[in-house]
Amino acid sequence: MKKRAAPAAASITVTVDLHERSYPIIIGHGTLEQIGPLVAAKLKARRAAVVTNPIVGKLYGRRVATSLQQAGCEVVSVQIPDGEEHKNLASLSRVYDRLLRQRIDRDSPIIALGGGIIGDLTGFAAATLLRGIPYAQVPTTLLAQVDSSVGGKTGINHPSGKNLIGAFYQPRLVLIDVGTLQTLPRREVLAGLVEVIKYGVILDPNLFALIERDLDRIIALDSDLLRDVVAQCCRLKAMVVARDEREADYRSILNFGHTLGHAVESLTAYKRYLHGEAVAIGMAFALQLSTIRGYCERATMQRVIELLKRAGLPVEIPPKLRGEQLASAIESDKKMASGKVKFVCLERLGQTRFEYLTSEEIAAVAAQYINVGGQ
Ligand code: NAD
Ligand code: GLY
């Protein structure tokens, strides 16, 4: 007798509330096969394009294509090479060429199947092709599931900087299968975990405490726990996006740890650290700055840094970078207003404040860096 597959645990739906542009985020384990019925029902599509890369395509492309075909959708597939260096105009052009050649129309959605690179590039292709066609995000990295697939920031890199070409353009649907994380390299899982910890630090002390308690189970990819944790991160991101879709002000709390993290990434030529690892260094730094300035208790700083270290993440700026170079990297990365950078500080878990600092003030704190140990 054929063995029956265990029923998938119930999925969770979170809504991003943006009035007529609202959309659901469906989070579960084994949900990938729902893409066909969802696209057919929600987007009323008879054709769909799937954009992915060779790694994710090989792992999950067939499941997604079969589900779409079984729901009556003809499928057009496009692959772009893997890697941040391919999040560029050439790859975007490849997507445009293929979809236009296949006569994709404004009723045919594009499905972004992959991590943040695929999601950002596909979202931008959808925003610009035929003046805007619907798209769905099917994120397969932890970072993409808890952050980049939600909120409509889309774009590509330019030789003079990351994400310099882009648009705010919301997806019509986000479908998250936490089961896809089973194949993600451990280092990528940990880099994504930084964004999860970030939500706990800036918005949700209960989530932070849960991560502290269940860190080992999260890293071991316990599927029910992952579903709940990813869903909570999506709720928090949905709340922030609904309040400030285009980052007029409030949404920039999500940049906690990113100002310095981006500078460290660019000073190490995007080679030494994954994005999440650089953000872990940036978060540890933002906590130190908050403590030195008297906004945040030392015990809170130590508690967060301890969790980052337990997760095997880097927390120290390489000593060679703690000077003028750091100041100029911060200046060239961020929009400065009257010579100051908007910097996200922490007062206590769940409570942030914005500070406007010169890059020299930031670099001066880096120079008096408290030794937090680690590596
Ligand atoms: P990524 O897309 O490069 O994916 C990381 C690696 O994992 C890649 O090699 C990819 O092929 C592989 N991969 C993906 N899913 C897999 C799976 N399930 N199993 C095995 N391998 C898998 O990196 P990322 O961290 O997901 O995204 C980084 C990008 O996201 C950056 O370009 C960044 O600018 C962007 N980003 C965007 C936002 C936003 O709000 N739009 C937010 C944060 C980051
Ligand atoms: N990743 C930060 C944001 O979406 O605003």
The arrangement of helices and strands along the chain is: EEHEHEHEHEHEEEHHHHHHHEEH
Question: What low-confidence regions span 5 or more consecutive residues with pLDDT below 50?
Answer: 1-7
Hetero ligands: nicotinamide-adenine-dinucleotide, glycine
E-strand count? 11
Distance between the termini: 54 Å
Q: Given the helix and strand composition, which structural class is it?
A: alpha/beta
Shape: globular
Number of helices: 13
Order of strands, widest sheet = 1-2-9-6-5-3-4
Largest sheet: 7 strands, mixed
Helix-residue proportion: 40-55%
Task: Give the radius of gyration.
Answer: 21 Å
Q: How large is the share of residues in beta strands? A: 15-25%
Notes on the structure:
There is one protein chain. The chain is α/β, with parallel strands linked by helices. The protein has 13 helices and 11 strands. The strands form 3 sheets. Strands 1-2-9-6-5-3-4 form a 7-stranded mixed beta sheet, sandwiched between helices. A two-stranded antiparallel sheet has the order 7-8. Strands 10-11 form a two-stranded antiparallel ribbon. Helix 4 (116-128) links the parallel strand 5 and strand 6. Helix 5 (142-148) runs parallel beside helix 8 and helix 9 packs across helix 10. The chain starts with 11 loop residues before the first strand and ends in an 8-residue tail after the last helix. Residues 1-7 have low confidence and may be disordered. Bound molecules: nicotinamide-adenine-dinucleotide and glycine (GLY). Residues 147, 151, 153, 247, 251, 254 line the site of glycine.
